[in-house]
Amino acid sequence: MPPSMTESSANKLTNGDVCHRTANGKKSSGRNGFVKNHCLFQQPQQKKYRRPSEKNNHVVHNASLYNKPFVEQFEETPLLVAVLTYVGYGILTIFGYLRDFLRNRGVEKCHVARERDEQKDFVPLYQDFENFYTRNLYMRIRDNWNRPICSVPGAKMDLVERASKDYNWTFEHTGKVVKDVINMGSYNYLGFAENTGMCADSATGSTHKYGVGVGSTRYEMGNLDIHEELEQLVARFLGVESSMAFGMGFATNSMNIPALAGKGCLILSDELNHASLVLGARLSGATIRVFKHNNMVSLEKLLRDAIVHGQPRTHRPWKKILILVEGIYSMEGSIVRLPEVIALKKHYKAYLYLDEAHSIGALGPRGGGVVDYFGLDPKDVDIMMGTFTKSFGAAGGYIGGKRELIDYLRSHSHSSIYATAMSPPVSQQIITSMKIIMGEDDTTLGAERLKQLSENTTYFRRKLREMGFIIYGNDDSPVVPMMLYMPAKIGAFGREMLKRNIGTVVVGFPATPIIESRARFCVSAAHTRDMLDTALEAISEVGDVLQLKYSRHHDFPSSLGPWSSAESLLLEPSHVKPSCHITN
Amino acid sequence: MASGQQWVLVEMVQALYEAPAYHLVLEGILILWIIRLLFSKTYKLQERSDLTEKEKEDLIEEWQPEPLVPLMSKDHPSLNYDIVTGPPSHKIIVNGKECINFASFNFLGFLDNERVKQKALTSLRRYGVGTCGPRGFYGTFDVHLELEDRLAKFMKTEEAIIYSYGFATIASAIPAYSKRGDIVFVDEAACFSIQKGLQASRSFIKYFKHNDMEDLERLLKEQEIEDQRNPRKARVTRRFIVVEGLYINTADVCPLPDLVKLKYKYKVRIFLEESMSFGVLGEHGRGVTEHFGVNIDDIDLISANMENAVASIGGFCCGRSFVIDHQRLSGQGYCFSASLPPMLAAAAIEALNIMEEDPEIFTILREKCKHVHKALQEIPGVKVVGEAYAPALHLQLERSSGSRDTDVRMLRSIVDYCLERQIALTLARYLDKEERFLPPPSIRVVVTIEQTEEDIEKAASCIREAALAILK
User: Fold this and answer.
1) Going from the N-terminus, what domains does chain B have, and what CATH number goes with each?
2) Which of A168, A213, B373, B432 has a CA 20 to 30 Å removed from the CA of A534?
3) Is residue A492 domain-shared with residue A426, that is, in the same domain?
C-alpha cells in the first residue's frame, strides 16, 4: 500500500467542499510532506495529537477509498461563545453552592427525597457531590426530558401536558393533551412507528397467535419459529451468512462483546462510542484503548503500537484486536470512515465490530446501513451489529456475520442463555418492516421511504446551515445536531420549540463535552416537506430570539466579519447572564 | 571554633601551593569529570533499543491473531435449539410434537390469556409497536408511567422504575449504587445477571455460602474489624447484601428475616432480586417479603423481571423514592436503551389487574407446586432440588458420573424421552466457564396453574420411566 493521498487530491475529488477550516491556519505543514514510515495513513509529524477542539474530521485523507464525497463538518466553537459558556457554568455552580448552603441551613425548602430515619446512621447511599449537578443544574431544565407522549411516536405526536409547581422537582399532569406536536426527536428514520398499515396488522396477527411473552430463553424453550424466520431474513438483508436477534439493543452490545473478547485481547474503541459498547468492552475483561473520534491516524497508531509492543509488561503478543465503531454517532451526526477502517483492519489483521444502531435502514441506497452507503462488502465487517428500535420501529438488536461467529454466539452469548427471547409481535414488526424495505412486499413503499429520508435529510441540513446555525456531522446523516453551547440555551430552546408545537431533543453535559451542548433533530421519512418547513421556520425564529446562529462560514467569507457580528450579538445583557434564562 | 575553621582554610590554601602540579591537574580533571557527569543525560540500565521501521513492519507482518471465535464442533447441542412452533403456552409444539409445557416460566398462565392479549392489542392500535427512543427523548409513554405507578402500588412501595429487558434490570441497578471501593456481599448461588451487575460495578465482592447466615455474619464481622482499623475509609464505603428471593439456580428461598436482622446490626443495605418469586410467593403474590411478612421498607431495593409470572417482557425495580429515583439518571439500561414497547407494558398492566382481582391464583399455584414436588419424589437416580412451593424445580442426578458432559447427556436423554411422550422439559442452561459457581447439571421443571393433575401425574410417571430406562 503506498503512503496516503495528499489532501489536495482529496479536495479535488470533493470539489473543494471539504476543507472549511484551512483559513484557521491549523493545518500542519508536515501533512503534505513525504513520509518515511510505512503507515497506511499518513501519521502527523508532530508528536502530539491535535487538541480535541480542533476537529479535523472534515478532511478526507484517503479519498481513493471512497466512492463518493465524504463531507463532514465540525465548525470550531467561537472563542467568545466558549468563554461565555464557561462563565455560564461558573455562575450556575456558584448559585448551586449558595443554594446548597441555604438548603443546609433550612432557609430554602429541600425537595430531595430523604433517607429513612431508621437508616440515618448507614453509610450514605450517595456522596453529596454526586448529585450536585442533578440538584442544581439538571433540575432547572428537567422539563425538557422525559416528556410523556400518548400517541404513536410518528411524524406528529401528542404530548401529555405537565406542570410543575415546585420548579421541576415534581410534575403534575394537567389532564390536557398537547396535540400534533411535530416530532423531531424520535429515531423513527423510516417512519415505521405506525399504528395502522402492514406492520401493525401483522403484529396484531402474531399477538393473536403467540401472545406477547415467551417465558423462556432461546437455549431452553424460547426458540420460536418466528425468531428463526427473523434471523434468516436479517441475514439476507445484511448480506451475511447468518444472524442472531436479541431482545434489547443495549444488551446486544453489553452481553455479546464479552463472548468475543477476553483477557489478553485488545479492544480499540472510538472515544464517542455508546455506553453499551463501553460496558460490553469493560465486562469482557479485555484491555481497552480509546482512539480519537473517527480519527484514522489515531487508530492506526494504536494498532501499530499494539502489535509492535504487545501486551503491557509481559510483551506477549495480543491474542486478537477488536475495533469497535458505530455507523452513525448519535450525538455527533458523523458517519464512520468505514473504507479506511476496513483498510486498516485488513492490513493489521484486526477484527471489526460495527454498531449500526442508527445507520441500519437510515443509510444506503437499499437501507443496508453504512456498508451499503459506502458500497462495501459486508463480509469485510466481522461483526455487524445493529438495533431494531430505530428504523424498524420495533425493539431489540441483532448480530450478523459468518456462520461460525453466529454458531459460537448461540452457545456463548449471555443473552441467548440467560435472557428471555424476543417478544413475538415485536419480531413480526421487524419482519414486516424489513420486507417492506427490501421490496419483498411487492410494493415500492420501502424504496420511496428511503428516498424520502435521504431527501429530507439533505433539505433539512442545507436549510439549517443556510440559516447560519452550526450543524455537526455528515451531510448524509439523518441525525442533525445543532449547537447551542450555553447551558441556559438548552432549556430555553427546548421550551421555546415546544411552545411552537415542535418536540426536539436537547442535550448537554455529561452526554456531550461541557461546552458543546446541543439540540438534536432526527429527520424521518414520515416528515412531509410542510412539516419540515414549519419546523425550520420555528427553529429560525427561536434561533433569532436566542441568538443561536453562530456559524461564521457561509454568509461571512472574510475572517473579520463573523467575529464582529458574533460579538455584537452576544454582548447583549441577557446572554451575559445565562442563569436568568433557567431560573424563571 | 571560628578560629579553628580559619586555620583549616589557611592550611588548605597553603596545601594548594605546596601540592605537586600533576596532583592539581589530576584533581582538576576529576572535578571536570564530575561536572560532566552531573550535566550529562541520565542513562537507563537497560539501554533503550528503538525498533527500526523495518523491524516494526516485520513484527506486524509476523503477528497472527487468534480466530475471532474458536471453531465449534458441528454436533454442539446449542447449534440445534429446540424449535417451538406457535405459542409457548400450556400446549406447546416442540420440534413438531405437541407437548404439555413444563419448561416455560409461565407460572400464572398469562402467556395466552385472552384479556392480556386484548389489552396488548388495544395498545398496539394506539401506539404502534416500538417507542423509537429512550425514556429521556420522547420514549416515555403514558403507559409506562401507569405501569410504574401500578407496580409501586402493587408492591406497596413509594416508587417503581421499569426496564425494557429483564436481564438488564438488576445488572443495571447494582452498578448505579455500588461503585469502585464499595463492598457487596453476595450469595454464591446468585444468578448470572447479578454477577454481571457486580462485575460492572467494580466493587469488592465477597461471596458467602448459599443461604448460610453464619458465613455471612463471619464476613460482616471481618469487615467490621477492618472498618475499625480504618474508620475514615469505612465512613464512605457503602455495603450491600445482594440476594435472590427465590433462587433460580437452587429453587430455594433466602432467609429474609435473618438478613434484615443482619442489615440493621451491621448497617448494610439489602438488594433483593425477585424474578422467580414476584407473582408467586405471598398471599397476594408480592414475593418473598410478603411470604415472610417482612416490612417491604426494610429492603432497600427489590428488582424483578416481568417475563416469568407476568408473562410480558422487561423488568422493574421498586423501593423508596430516595433509592429508586437515582436510577432514572444512573441506571445504564434505563437511560441508554429504548423504552419498553407500550403494548408489552399494557400486557403487564393487565396481568397486574388479574393478579389483584384474583389473589386465589397464587394459592392454586402453590398447591400445584406442592403436588409436582411430591410427585417427583423417589424417582430412582434423580433427586428433586428446591422448596415444595417453588414453581421452577431442578431435577439433578443423585450420583454424578464424574464428568459434566456425560451428566448433561444423560439428563438430555431424559428430556428427549419425555419430549417423545409429549412432556416438554428443558435442561437448565449455563455458561460453564463464566459462572462464578457453576450449579450441577439439572432438568428444569416449571409448574404453571394450567397443568392439571393428570398432566402432573403423566409428567412424573414419564420422568420416572425415563430415569429407569436411561439411568438404570
Assistant:
1) 80-109+359-471 (3.90.1150.10), 114-357 (3.40.640.10)
2) A168
3) no
Summarised one tens digit per residue, pLDDT across range A195-227 is: 999 999 999 999 999 999 999 999 999 999 999
pLDDT tens digits, one per residue of A428-463: 999 999 999 999 988 999 999 999 999 999 999 999
Q: Give me Rg for the CA atoms of chain A.
A: 25
pLDDT tens per residue, range A84-104: 999 999 999 999 999 989 988
Name the nearest CA neighbour of B368 among B401, B395, B393, B394: B393
Q: Which residue segment(s) compose the domain that A473 sits in?
A: 73-183+447-551
User: How large is the ipTM?
Assistant: 0.88
CA distance B186 to B243: 6
Of B171, B332, B22, B345, nearest to A425 (Cα)? B345
Closest-CA residue of B relative to A521 is: B137
Nearest-Cα distance to chain A for B13, in Å, is: 54
Q: How far apart are the first and last CA of chain A?
A: 61
Report CB contact under 8 Å: A209, B138: no
Cβ-count burial A212-230 (b if 16+ within 10 Å, e if not): bbbbbbbbbbbbbebbbeb
Q: Are strands B239-244 and B183-187 parallel, antiparallel or unpaired?
A: parallel
Q: What grid cell was written down for B398?
A: 443423585
Order across the sheet with A505-507: list the strands: A479-485, A517-522, A505-507
Q: Are residues A379 and A497 in the same domain?
A: no
Q: Indicate whether A561 pLDDT > 50.
A: no
- Quick check: is A66 in a domain? no
Q: pTM higher than 0.80, yes or no?
A: yes
Q: Please indicate, yes or no, whether residues A351 and A427 belong to a single structural domain of this protein.
A: yes
Task: Assess whether the previous peptide bond of A510 is cis (omega < 30° from 0).
Answer: yes
pLDDT for A584 beyond 90: no
Q: Are A284 and A302 in a shared domain?
A: yes
DSSP codes joined into one string, A189-258: TT----SSHHHHHHHHHHHHHH-S---SBTTTT--BHHHHHHHHHHHHHHTSSEEEEES-HHHHHHHHHH
Q: Quick one: DSSP state of residue B193?
A: H
- A132/A157 same-domain check: yes
Residue A567 lies in a domain: no
Instruction: Sort out which chain A residues have CB atoms less than 8 A from B322's CB and list them.
Output: 113-116, 125
Nearest CA in chain B to A393: B130
For A169, the closest chain B residue by CA position comes to B325
The CATH number for A347's domain is: 3.40.640.10
B119 membership: H or E segment, kind and range: helix B114-127
- Contact partners, residue A251, CB within 8 Å, separation at least 6: A276, A397, A415, A419, B165, B167, B168, B333, B337
